[in-house]
Amino acid sequence: MDLNQQPMRIVPTFDGLDPGTLTEEDLQIITNNDAQIADDRSAMWTYKMRHEAQRILDFLYLGPRTIVKDAQWLNATGITMIVLAHDVGFGPLLKSFAEKCTEGLDIETLLIPVASSHGLTKLFDDITRAINRNLLSVYRQQAEGAGDSQGTMAINSSNVKRGKVLVTCQTGNDRATVIAAAYIMSVFGVGMVDAVNFITSQRFCSNFDEEAKRALCSWEEILGARKDVHRARTPVGSERGGSGAGLAGPPQALRPLLRWEEEAY
């Protein structure tokens, strides 16, 4: 290991986003404009750590499904949303499991039934928007009222609570890692390789197989094409401040999931 090697670092930048999904203000709220530095755990990784959750971003954690049963950890960490990727057919069982584990906690739960990593590709968009919507909602619920004549929200930044998301699957090593990578690619504008390395250095047991990498490569191409289209349609001088229309209301593809209905992909 090169002791002089600098830790991986990703920086939120509006220029790296598809501005049709987030406004610049949204991005600032979600990321706090903080650079995210990977806490490289590869040298000190132990087997038992695969049964724990690791912080991947300031506001995003990755771990096995068993973590959902640890109400004390969820509460102490400040988790406001749990994303559970699971095999098709286990929806009713996991619905009951999630409800029992989060009883009495103000935590939103989103179930994602998938048959394969490839099946996740068409859901990346909706999952990302659902996560962002939760993070924005947690922030905006703390508004103290209209701060000025324009109706700007006044929030006490000294004690503001930020939303935090736990992404999980049965092991926390495969489908959950793919979801986390797709989210990082979308919000931080990084490529597949950087997103995978950023996650793997922090959760060393992460398993990105060839199917997962192909899915993320496809997602990278989709994100790149969207940016190109948006740039082509955006008049010069008005690149900033996307419409954010993608955050208005529950994403169509996930409406059944938000009602705990099982759907196969």
UniProtKB/TrEMBL annotation:
Belongs to the protein-tyrosine phosphatase family. Non-receptor class subfamily. It comes from Parascedosporium putredinis. InterPro entries: Dual-sp_phosphatase_cat-dom, Prot-tyrosine_phosphatase-like, STYX-Interacting_Phosphatase, Tyr_Pase_dom, TYR_PHOSPHATASE_DUAL_dom. GO terms for molecular function: catalytic activity, acting on a protein; F-box domain binding. One of its GO terms (cellular component) is cytoplasm. One of its GO terms (biological process) is negative regulation of SCF-dependent proteasomal ubiquitin-dependent catabolic process. PANTHER family: SERINE/THREONINE/TYROSINE-INTERACTING PROTEIN, SERINE_THREONINE_TYROSINE-INTERACTING PROTEIN. This is Tyrosine specific protein phosphatases domain-containing protein. CDD domains: DSP. Residues 133-203 form the Tyrosine specific protein phosphatases domain.
